[in-house]
Amino acid sequence: MNFLANNPMPEEEVGIPDMLTMKPSVYIQQDSQDTISYSYLQGLGKRLSAIFAKYPDLYNTSVNILSKNTVNYRETSENIKQKSLHGFVELSAYASVRTPDGSEISDHIDRIVCSDKELDSDKLTDLVKRFADRLVKLHQSEALNDYYVGPIMYEDDMISNTLSNIVVPLLTAKRTVQDNSGISSLLVGKRIFDKHLNIDQLTDMPVFDSMKLLGNFSCDADGVVPAKRLSLLSGGFVKQLICGRYPALNCLRSTGNDRFFDDPDVIGTGVVPGILRMYGDAEEPFAKMKQILCKEAKEKGLKVTYIVREPSGLTPCLYRVNVATGEEKLVRVNEIPTPSKGDLLHIVAMSKEENIQNTIINRIGSTIISPRALIIENIECYFKKPKQEMAFPIEPPKN
C-alpha cells in the first residue's frame, strides 16, 4: 500500500483493466496428416554423422535430432475450449578443429524442420557438408585485428535474429503493477527505425514459398482470432503493438498473440508474434547488393568493407571484401559485429529476395520472413584476434 500511495498510477493508465474478459469460444485443431517418422530420423542421423568421417581434421563431432510433438488441451471458467497441436524437429550438429597456432575453434548447426518433406536428406546432407567445409576453411583463415567504421552487409539468418532479439521486444506490449506500461507503449506513433522499413504480422498462412511455417496459427490460447495481416511498423513508425489478454497503454485490445509454449516439458503461454514479415519500400536484387556495399564503402574512402553471413542453420561468419575488386576473404575475429537498434535507423539497401527462418522465441514457435541481405550505413567495430592458446600436446583422434 505504501508503494502505491507514494507512486500513484499515471493519469493515462487509470481505467486500463488488469486483465481482459474473454468471450466463450471453441477451437479444435484437426490432427495433422504430416507426421514425423521416427525410423526415418534414426536413419537420417546415421547418414549425417557419417559425413564427418570425410573430414579428418574435425573432432568432437556429433549429430543430434530431437523430435518435439505436443497436444495442448485447455478448458477455462470463461468457457474457452481448445485443442492445439504443435510439432517440429530440432537438428543440431557439433564439431571442433584446431588452428595451426594451437587454438581450438568449435562450431555448431541449429536448424528447425517442420515436416517430413523438409527432412529431405539431400538438403540436410548439403547443410552438414557446408558446415564442415566452412569450419575447415575457418581454421586456416587469417585472424583479424582491426578498427573499422563503415557499411556492413548482413545476410540470411543474421537479419532474422536481429529482428527476434531487438525488434520483437519493442513491438510487444508490457505492463506491471510497479512500472505500469513498458517503454514499448511510448513508442507507438514514433519513428524508431529507417523510414523505408516495414514489419507486418501474418497469420493463417501454413506454407510460404513451399516451406512449412512454424509460426503459423489461427487462434490464440484465449480463443482470440488474430488479424490475417497486422501492420506493426510502417515507414519506420510503430503503428501497433501485440498483446494478449493483459492490456497496456496504446494496446487496449488483445491482438490474439497469447500463444501456447512449444516446449513439451513446460505448460504455459506467452505473447509472441506468429509470422513476421520485414520488407522495404525500395528493394534491390540480391545479386547487386555487394556492388551497392562496395560503392557505399568507396564513397566513404574505405579500401575494405565487410559482410556477415549466417546461412540458415549455421552460425555467423565474417568476410572481408576488397572494395576495388569485390574479392572476399573469410577472416576470424573474437566477436562478430551485430547491429544495434540505433544502427537500424540508417539502412542503405535491402534485397528483394527473402529469407525464411523458423525459430523459437521465448519457448514459442515463430517464423521470420526478412530480406536475404541488408546493408547498414555505419557500424563501428573493433575486430580483435581470438586469443591464442597453447598448442595441444596430443594429436586429436581422427574420426
Question: Helices, strands, pairings?
Answer:
Layout: H1 2-6, E1 25-28, H2 38-50, E2 59-75, E3 80-98, E4 104-113, H3 121-139, E5 142-143, E6 146-156, H4 157-170, E7 175-176, E8 180-181, H5 183-187, E9 197-202, E10 207-208, E11 211-212, E12 229-234, E13 237-238, E14 258-260, E15 269-271, E16 275-280, H6 289-299, E17 304-310, E18 317-322, E19 328-332, E20 347-350, E21 354-361, E22 364-371, E23 373-383
Parallel strand pairs: 1-3, 5-19, 6-17, 16-22
Antiparallel strand pairs: 2-3, 3-4, 6-23, 7-8, 9-12, 9-16, 10-11, 12-13, 14-15, 17-18, 18-19, 20-23, 21-22
Low-pLDDT residue intervals, each spanning 5 or more residues: none
**Strand percent estimate:** 35-45%
- Spatial strand order of the main sheet: 5-19-18-17-6-23-20
Q: Give the N-to-C terminal Cα separation.
A: 66 Å
- The number of distinct helices, counting runs of at least 4 residues, comes to 6
Helices and strands, in order, run as HEHEEEHEEHEEHEEEEEEEEHEEEEEEE
The major β-sheet equals: 7 strands, mixed
Q: Please state the average pLDDT score.
A: 91
Structural class: alpha+beta
Total number of beta strands: 23
Radius of gyration: 24 Å
Q: Shape from CA axes?
A: globular
Estimate the helix proportion, in percent.
Answer: 10-25%
